[in-house]
Amino acid sequence: MASPAPDPGPETSDLTSPETADLTKKMRSEWDERARENARYYIATAKNDWNDEEYFESGRENVRREILTDMGNICQGKDPKQMSVLEIGCGSGRITRALAEIFGQVYAVDISGEMIRQARESLRDCPNAHVFQNNGMDLGVLGNVRVDFAFSYIVFQHIPSRDVIRGYVLEVHRLLRPGGLFKFQVQGGSSMDAAPGDTWLGTPFSDADAAAMAEECGFEPRYRIGAETQYFWLWYFRRTWWSSLWLKLRRKIGSRFRRAPQTGEPVRS
Ligand SMILES: C[S@@+](CC[C@H](N)C(=O)[O-])C[C@H]1O[C@@H](n2cnc3c(N)ncnc32)[C@H](O)[C@@H]1O
């Protein structure tokens, strides 16, 4: 029996334009500046004088809320201590530390060299947390590491380019095991008025945008919560080859029986 044609996978992303290069330079220099001024405040603006204990406890609280309540989707039966996880935009390690207390290995990236310096210093006692400065648009710095779960919180809400965010989603697709979950938060509040290139108020996503980006990048957008708010959470499950095939079949069958708008007759594609 002939085996199914290999799935070509999602599209790739071209982030080589001079505009993207200028934008990543701007993101890096503005986040470095924020990190030098008061990293902990710009990461968690509820306080401007966090002590170590409160700061890392706030990260644990986020992890309790977003991860420990959702271990079925995240671990899918695996022992967390046997899992490798990815964090995009780790800042000075607030959430990275909490992740390292639960999972076997944590790989974390951030665009800001100053944030990474502070994260390395704070995570010296966490040998399973590996933090890297990246270029602000891809995960090349991690090579081909395989991860079982990917996470990002209050990071994409600051990125003023849909292409850069989409590029990250494609990169997660490259590193995440088939069936694995990428759980992340984007800006859903479309009424926010950001100037182009603003590195604090990022680009907003509508519910339809979020669903479309998943499909374009090879994920199933299984759940979405918080559309139209700042905390728009997305659960993207990386498609397996059989779920991609099933999707294609469903689309093909669906399009054959779609009705013509005026006559009500089935239309053939
Ligand atoms: C508000 S902080 C959140 C840090 C961390 N996620 C937390 O909750 O503790 C946003 C972080 O995203 C990083 N960041 C911003 N744009 C980025 C990009 N294009 N690529 C990677 N990291 C980025 C910043 O340097 C900053 O450390």
Set out the fold topology.
Layout lengths: L17 H26 L8 H15 L4 H5 L8 E5 L5 H9 L2 E6 L2 H10 L6 E5 L13 E6 L9 H14 E11 L20 H10 L2 E7 L6 E7 L2 H16 L13
Parallel strand pairs: 1-2, 1-4, 2-3, 4-5
Antiparallel strand pairs: 5-7, 6-7
In short:
This protein is an alpha/beta fold and 269 residues long. The chain has helices at residues 18-43, 52-66, 71-75, 94-102, 113-122, 162-175, 207-216, 241-256; strands at 84-88, 105-110, 129-133, 147-152, 176-186, 219-225, 232-238. The protein has two domains: 23-238, Rossmann fold; 241-269, no CATH class.
By secondary-structure content and strand pairing, the structural class works out as: alpha/beta
- Tell me what portion of residues adopts beta-strand conformation: 15-25%
Assigned CATH architecture of the largest domain: 3-Layer(aba) Sandwich
Low-confidence stretches: 263-269
Strand order of the largest sheet: 3-2-1-4-5-7-6
The small-molecule ligands in this entry are: S-adenosylmethionine
Shape: globular
The CA-CA distance between the termini, in Å, is 28 Å
Helix proportion: 25-40%
Gyration radius (Cα, Å) is: 20 Å
CATH homologous superfamily identity of the largest domain: Vaccinia Virus protein VP39
Look at the structure and give the CATH class of the largest domain. Answer: Alpha Beta
What is the subunit organization of this protein? single chain
Secondary-structure element sequence?
Answer: HHHEHEHEEHEHEEH
The major beta sheet can be summarized as: 7 strands, mixed
> How many β strands by DSSP?
7
Give the count of helical stretches: 8
CATH topology of the largest domain: Rossmann fold
Task: Count up the domains.
Answer: 2
Mean pLDDT: 91
